[in-house]
Sequence to fold (1022 residues):
Amino acid sequence: MRETTTVGDELTDTKTAGAPSTSGTVGNTPGKKAKKEREASLWSDAVSDLRRNPIFLIGSALVLLLVVLSAVPQWFTPDSPFTAGACQLQDSLKKPSADHWFGFDVQGCDVYTRTVWAARNSIIVGIVTTALVIVVGGALGLLAGWVGGLVDSLLSRFTEIFFAIPLLLGGMLIMSGLGKGNAWTVSIVLATLGWPQIFRIMRSSVLQNKNNDYVVAARALGAGTWRITMRHILPNAIAPVIVVGAISLGVYIGAEAALSYLGIGVQPPGISWGLMVSDASVRWLQAPHVLLFPAAALSITVLAFIMVGDAVRDALDPKLR
Amino acid sequence: MTTISKTSNVPAPRSAPEGTPLLEVRDLHVEFHTRDGVAKAVNGVSYSVNAGETLAVLGESGSGKSVTAQAIMGILDMPPGKIPHGEILFQGQDLLKLPAEDFRKIRGQKIAMIFQDALSSLNPVHTVGAQLGEMFRVHRGMSKKDATAKAVELMDRVKIPAAKARVGDYPHQFSGGMRQRIMIAMAMALEPDLIIADEPTTALDVTVQAQVMDLLAELQREMNMGLILITHDLGVVADVADKIAVMYGGRIVENAPVHEIYKRPAHPYTRGLLDSIPRLDQKGQELYAIKGLPPNLLNIPSGCAFNPRCPKAQDICRTDVPVLHQVTERDGSELPGRGSACHFWKEQIHG
Amino acid sequence: MAEPTGNAPEREPILQVRNLVKHFPLTQGILFKKQVGAVKAVDGISFDLYRGETLGIVGESGCGKSTVAKLLMNLERATAGEVFYKGQDITKLSGRALKTVRRNIQMVFQDPYTSLNPRMTVGDIIGEPFEIHPEVAPKGDRRRKVQELLDVVGLNPEYINRYPHQFSGGQRQRIGIARGLALNPEIIICDEPVSALDVSVQAQVINLMGKLQDEFDLSYVFIAHDLSIVRHISDRVGVMYLGKMAEIGSDAEIYEHPTHPYTQALLSAVPVPDPEVREARERIILTGDVPSPANPPSGCRFRTRCWKAEEKCATEEPLLAIPTRFKSVNTPAAHESACHFAEEKAVLAV
Fold:
């Protein structure tokens, strides 16, 4: 924190010296403002920053909505797209109306119902992929950074092989080989290709933190590897991982849509925005609404996650303050 | 106490101050607008330097010594920095009122700055020769070849061995002391009238410190430049300065010719600082320690900023900001160049 | 090794360092690294530390003094040599045995900003030693112990729930000292403990360390580059240059009767905050920089910057011993000095 401000040491020191000196001489008077001061830490500063950031507020509201939407879609639409007779061919390509806001697709299915229910697959792919990536990439990155030496060399070279494979191209290749896909297989495939990014961030973050004096101090006290990793390394190294995780969550949702669009992601009767876009793309001139609504839902979702990730990154980066 | 005779030992400014001083800072204020409020880094600082004279600005972190220098150099980050009040007169001209372009010209050619950390002040991807030469190419319009020749000359002048062979080296290939010499060479390149050195030797080893300080003093004498030396080290000050301004909480608390201040400080803060450094030439008992902490610039104590830490503080110190009093002898005769911003300066110096 | 002068002969050394060596290999290669050289950070250092005393170690950057601290703490494995703590060589220890020794040798770091984990409260930081060594304090007792420690180092015990960044540099250093004291150690290794602090705060911390030494009968190894501070706090002082001990003796022997040219140059270069003393003394200004520890000069390592250097200095390495010419004389100059041409030279005007 100290090195980052460019104003000169005068100002930065006011920050560090600030809190205690308000309460007078060293260790004499109890800090009257202790309650207020406690809130000031990297994370709590970030939180107060985020609360005032409209980008974060909009983004997180959208994310919240999407999560609820995918957990309990029946709250938002009375019909399920999976019940028999949900789609009536006579409704095919009907335009939006007061009863059916998004109109009907070529099969005569209600576009609104399908758009709402499709959120679930996207969110599953986003969250599961990100979770897998953070667990696998994070654990291996921690291992490589902390152990170093030959383990680090081997893991790093191994990671570079994966890193060289483009996410979408690799995903297309593997998915088309697997044939039948659903949200879970897509997640696993994307995670297989996505973990190197987190690995690299985690590794460099650990390398940065492991030579800090407080880690050396813990070693000098006789702390074991597990304690040092859990108490000292991980809490200080995790922030950048979380930020990148949030941003790439949106990217994975986009990748799922792309795979489904190509017919190698989520398969019918499963519902996915990518699939809906694919179905609508043939007749989009006659029935633009069939394309528009799922495409917009997809864009807004990806955008929402990227907005949140970006805002968190800015808030956690004291240099940008 | 016939201390008057001692004052004559003070080295006279090397060139007589005729008319306007080279640089005069008048009632300068600088504040920073942060999320937590307004940090008042500089609160009415005035000082002046003549050609050939060395002014040492002494203070701890947060005293405002570096911010003042940054304001003079026009390198304050604005925002969050702001100069609500004050004048910086360079050769009679107020730099703060100049158009940006003119200020930039003065800054490049007539005022130069030396920073503490030479490695981060030099561009790592260019050779030192190119960086030194650039000064001549930009400001003097020299050809590349002439500029390189000039660079070698400069490196010779700051006593870098084998200058000709090393002109093509990159900054990281030099040791800390040599890099600081290169910084000095860059500052000297256009023969400025004023050099501001911000902790120029703090990052260096003692044996190298002495070399660099000597070089700086020698070049200053040769070129009759004004030098503002910003430091926290009372030892470095004693070695090279003509006069001292001690800063605390964004104000000057004491002004004095260098010899005087060590003998008879007129401000309790200066006294405390002098007493709190261990002596090399004698083994002391417990050190005197100024209690408490430097002030929080967001919330500077009322009255005298030093009052919560001052052993002599009275009620008036908590209510009235002391002005910089002219310090006089016991008999009322003026001590030239001496001032103290303490309500009880008389007790401090004569008590 | 001869008994260091200036110490009562009955005192038992608590720590004995013998021919301590640390070479850091310089490697090349991506997957399989091969050694292409070594940085000789510490190259054969011996000294004793006595109970209750402070041994100052001074030297310029790159002289290996911080590596010595890490070796004494067993944070780096020594390449060769021994460190005996109460007769036991701790450089060979590991696991449980090492953990036990760690209770007795603790460390205070230079940078109060990086030596405290920013994500932990002061209570957790000072309490961590008890979690690692649960036998020292029973669980229910820990909070009280931490508050006691805060009080001992002059901080308000109510600050226990605050985070490090809410403190100033001097206060953080106090927290670091409290952590070092928690296990009630016998030895504290201080690596530049005050050099990152403001002048007015340095004195507070130095005084605190002096007070704690008396209170807890601590032995300090005090590593610093500031000769004035080292003199103030040390009973004995060792001067290091490029991985070697150049001279060692009591503080008066080193400061008032230095016999090694490097010590003399170092002392004469220190700016003294008193213009009159400054004018009275002679200054030795060394030329050049410290050579690289990866490729140190042959013979005496100081010879490249020494004004006394002769051919002998390039071929024959001077050993750290009482110089022959002073051996039979009762003079403060008779202390260990690694110079072929050791002679007294008063550099400080006293």
Observations:
- Chain C touches chain B through 48 residues (CB under 8 Å).
